[in-house]
Amino acid sequence: MRRPAPASPPVALTVAGSDSGGGAGIQADLKTMEAHGVFGTSVVTAVTAQNTRGVASSHVLPTSEIEAQFDAVVDDFELGAVKTGMLATADVVETVTERLADVDAPVVVDPVMVATSGDRLLSSDAESAYEELVAAATLVTPNVDEAEVLTGVDVTDDESAREAGETLIELGAKAALVKGGHLDGDTVVDTLVVSDRLREKYTDDAPTGLGTHRFEHPRVDTEATHGSGCALSSAVAATLARGNSLVESVTAGTDFLQRAVRYGLDVGKGPGAVHHLVGLRDRADQQVTVEEVAAVVERFVDRDVSLLVPEVGMNVVGATPYAESPDETAAVEGRITRTLSGVHPNRGVRLGASSHVARFLLAAREVDPTLRFAVNCRFADDVEAALSALDGAVAEFDRAAEPDDFAAVEGNTMQWGARRAFESAGETPVAVVDRGAHGKEPIVKLLAADPETVAERTLTLLEAVETEQ
To answer: Which parts of the sequence belong to the Pyridoxamine kinase/Phosphomethylpyrimidine kinase domain (predicted)?
Structure first.
């Protein structure tokens, strides 16, 4: 018989409706909490028949059943945070507000009024009942439409978002996050307004008066946002339950949602849903990616790719399927260099070991997210002639055409170059030529969606170069 080794994660509670489609509501909340290392408990307020295309019907539970669930949870668990979602009716809102009065934990109120599909999830007479619940909130997280209903402020820009947040604080909330996803523009701006009534343990700087924080993220061109509000509020609640400050929790929550939307789940016949486990999956895939890169490097050593190693050294870079930064790419630390007996990696493969090639790969993934691997190779006349052996388009970019103000920022050249190369090819290229500049060695970068393909393309190029010689 083995000795048990139990874990003791923080506990959070979600009070919300059930989504039979699994993308929003209680289901989304529990997935998100678990992905953030928090044990999720639940109070189901309503049962909905819905999927990625819309809500077919809903049934609100009797308040006595809601109270019974709530009592069962608080009698047994020490709650680190609570979040509320779909409450449906005035009676439910009032019941939940009463129960929360006895909870000593931060409360995140997501005032769910309308589903992403456009279906209404809150009765009109329940809107006024929200005032007391807002007053009990550590944080309230309305989108612009919900903020207008709650405050009367027509949110159209940063200034009106701040005004709506301040009005919610006047209603009693300790902080308000007005989400800007419904506004037009290439950038999503979420506005957090914090009151000095917020207790010090929930904030970074215990501000006097009102403090305003902006959270900006590039907009993702997708309609697969089902469950986005639930996922964000649950992520914030879970991070609060882990003991983080409010600003830290909102920062983590908005960053998480950006990735969860970009790498959304293509499920159902509708637009799809956000990826609640995206961070967990990214971490799980990191070691696998390290091993895949190491296997490619081993093939290069065995085959001796000296003829393709540039003066700056060669690197093999692999991105996780959800990589957003160089720290989430695996590469050879110190690169691969030529020796008297062939090629040799200077050190092992680890995450974050590449800057130049990793930034290029990440920029290429902005155009084609299926790309996950890249290798930088020497570029000269013999290599240029050998590129015709590759099965696919070869693109290039000219550093001389890069705008001066863009080139002045470290890392921008790789982003600009990748986009120019893809535009010139009109498709995803298998190789991108950088002819270099003063102090910049000419390089060709090979791209692929998997490690086997990037290795084969490199070895095909090597064989063609050997033939040229």
So the answer is: 19-275
